[in-house]
Structures are given as structure tokens and as C-alpha cells.
Amino acid sequence: MMITxxxxxxxxxxxxxxxxxxxxxxxxxxxxxxSKVGLGAFAxxxxxxxxxxxxxxxxxxxxxxxxxxxxLYSQFRYVGRLTLTGLVLYFIIVSxxxxxxxxxxxxxxxxxxxxxxxxxxxLRAGG
Length: 127
Fold this sequence. Notes:
By secondary structure, this protein is mainly alpha-helical.
């Protein structure tokens, strides 16, 4: 059964694919390397997916606002998201429980999934 990817379900497809990739990378890191690599991949993937949700939420709110208010709101949310993500990453890195390599791979799950979906769409369209 083929699932058609369109604007209505694109976000859900990206999230489901990223969660699947996150499970695969976490288990692969854990089984093939060490528990630190698996934990790093899991932590990085959770951060990436949470950031993706947060960005989508902010964009949905901005589209319904007046232009002057939207600019200030988006700037405040961007700085807040960046600060919170930086603090979480700082504590993950200094804790010593997580592998940096696993963390970097986990942080890339959204990007890997979007690239895979782009290639899939291009190949399916005959391009």
C-alpha cells in the first residue's frame, strides 16, 4: 500500500519517519557500539524532533498575527528556543553519559528524513 505524501500529511510523515529512524539509530548504536552511543542518538533525536515541533508551533502562531507583533514574537521565541536547546545540550555533553558521535547523529534525524523524503519524491516523479 502506497501512502501519498502531500501538504496535508507532510508534517506527520516527517515525524513518523523521524521517530522510526530515531528508534533504528538508538537500537543500532546501543547494540553495535555502546549504551553511550545509543543514549546519545536517542537524546539528540528527541531534541531535534522537539525543536521541529516547536518551530512548527511558532510558525502557525505567527501566520495569524499582525506583522509588527509577529516579528517580536518570533524573535523572542527563537532566542528562547536557542537558549533552552543550548542549555540542554550543555548538560548532556558535560554529564558524560552520552556519546558526542551518537548525539550528533541523533540531532540529524530530521535532516536525514527530509533528504530521504526529497529523494523519494524526486525518484517517484521520474526526476
